[in-house]
Amino acid sequence: MPPNQPKPINPFNIVLLVVGVLFVVTACGYSVLTVKASHPFEASEATASGEWLLNLLDQYGFAALMTELVILAFTAFAAMGTDEYWTRRASAKSGADPPEAI
Q1: 1: in domain
Q2: Is this prediction's pTM over 0.70?
Q3: Strand positions, DSSP E, 10-90
Q4: How do residues 20-52 score in pLDDT, each as one tens digit?
């Protein structure tokens, strides 16, 4: 691939980014739920607006974390495994020589 040509986009990287952000949000919410459960007598108006999220995480949080973790693992391996394919495909479209394997 010529140096001035941008690196091709691997669609698995996009999925990996979206699921990674979702996993971080879920993990942070689940940890807030854990801290809140350890201090049950401290309630404030600020947390009342997010009660629906904490109730959702209380019911489905662990299953959501495990599902997101499996999807993260699958897409990470898929992104690594298909990176060479997307690079060769972009090189073939541009008419450049494919990069040599290391």
Answers
A1: no
A2: yes
A3: none
A4: 999 999 999 888 888 887 876 655 555 566 678
Among residues 34, 28, 30, 32, which one has the least CA distance to residue 62? 30
> Which residues form the domain of 70?
12-38+48-89
Domain-embedded: residue 6? no
> Percent helix, strand and coil across the chain, each rounded to 5?
75, 0, 25
Q: Who wins on pLDDT, 96 or 10?
A: 10
Largest CA distance in the chain: 67
Spatial distance between the Cα atoms of 60 and 54, rounded to a whole number of angstroms:
10
The Cα 70–Cα 65 span in angstroms is 9
Residue-wise pLDDT tens digits, 60-84: 999 999 999 999 999 999 999 998 8
Chain Cα centroid distance, residue 7: 21
